[in-house]
Amino acid sequence: MQHPHRHAVRVATILRRQLERLRVADIGRTTERRAALTTRMVQLTELAQRMNRAWRCQYHGASRRLQRRFDRQLADLVSEINFLRSNPEHDGDPGRPLPTPRQVLDELRQIEDEFGGWMLENGSRTLSVETDPITLEYLHLGRFRLALDLHRLGDSPHVFPLRVEALEPNPAAGSDRVTHPHVRDECLCTGDATAPLGHALRDGRLADVFMLVRNVLNTYNPDSPYVSIDDWEAEGCPECGGSMYEDTRCWCELCDRDYCDECVGTCQHCSETTCYGCLRTCDHCEETFCRQCMTSCGDCGEACCPGCLDDDLCPNCHETKENDDENQEDPIQEPLQQEAPAHPPTVQASQPTAA
Amino acid sequence: MQILFINNDGAGFADYVKVEPDTSVEKFFNQQLPDRPAADFLIRVNRQPVPRDYRLQEGDRVTMTPTKIAGALCAC
User: Which residues lie across from A136 on neighbouring strands?
Assistant: First the structure.
């Protein structure tokens, strides 16, 4: 852990530069949003005038259509206003002072009080802290390192440049990428903390940023985890990625792996259960067979099940062979069959007469 | 008197607010976040934990941060 005085000025310099970038971007976006809002209000006013005219003239059909359009545009306007009110990038005060080295020093001191220390690494690029061990319900997830990339703070208002690294990883059995129900690939989905984090970041309140993230990590939201706590120990099916439990796990003898019960089928010949990757469908009877039972036609090589195979030939090749054999036994019939198309004119000529 | 109030709940904001002199931090919490249990929040005054009967002073910096915040899943 490092002493705050030594690095506060450096952190403050980086922070001020990045927040300045973010602020310029925020102002640009806010200007665009406000312009769009004004345009929408003008459109709504014009629509209201047209509705009034339609009512006066008793154009009832037009009135109803305009009313529906008005309601839709009004709902869009309300959501636009709510967005402007709630989104941190749009409440930016261009004159708001940037954090001073003194304030950053206070932030670093508070981080030290709350987390027991902090580290500035990668050439002053990353400010990081470590959490206490985190346990959600009965699931022990260990400590996490929260690494904030100071140089990327100003990149985008929609990207939160913080890595959440598991120091004592206990990942979900089904995915090493998920080290916490709300962390995948070291990226935390901040959920309800998104708006306050945005405000804290823009104000340079680094201690609040880390505390909010820690509190998200200490909370389990069963409604939208990457992997739920109940499924944490369940291995992932190699086929579909879904959780496999003891009672739904199926062993594929052919590839020596477990699969979930939705990703296996039964061979119609040997009755063994195998994964879909080891099952083949016979083109002739359309039944499924394991790749060991599935055979192939001795002539065309096409996959064919043992039941459809006859004399080592698939039904198509078998039929062709039979025809060939018949022709060879009775070679005189062949020319007669070829001459057959010459007879129909005689038949056609007789039809009108009969009619 | 005026204090800086930083609310890390909901949309989150930081602003100066007026409070009556001799207001305790518990009373201020109940004014700002009625119907919310104080036990679910980390309350700091001037970056330090304080007892609930702490009397707010002019220029104090009060932070209220929920201890339970629901994360989610998203495409990062």
Answer: A139
Helix A4-56 vs helix A194-203: crossing angle, to nearest 10: 120
**Is the Cβ of B42 closer than 8 Å to some Cβ of chain A?**
yes
* B12/A197 touch (CB, cutoff 8 Å), yes or no: yes
pTM: 0.67
Backbone angles phi, psi at A189, to 5 degrees: -90, 110
Structure tokens at B28: 């201020």
Residue B73 contacts A where some CB pair is shorter than 8 Å: yes
A273 strand-pairing partners:
A266
Q: Packing angle between helix A4-56 and helix A101-115, nearest 10 degrees?
A: 100
Q: Hey, is the C-beta of B18 within 8 angstroms of any chain A C-beta?
A: no
Q: Which residues of A touch B66 (CB under 8 A)?
A: 215
For residue A338, the Cα-to-chain-centroid distance in whole angstroms is 62
Determine, for residues A86 and B63 on separate chains, whether the beta-carbon distance falls below 8 Å. no
List pLDDT tens digits, range A21-53. Answer: 888 877 777 788 788 888 888 989 999 999 999
| Rounded CA separation A226/A243 (Å) | 12
Report the residue of chain B nearest A226, measured CA to CA.
Answer: B73
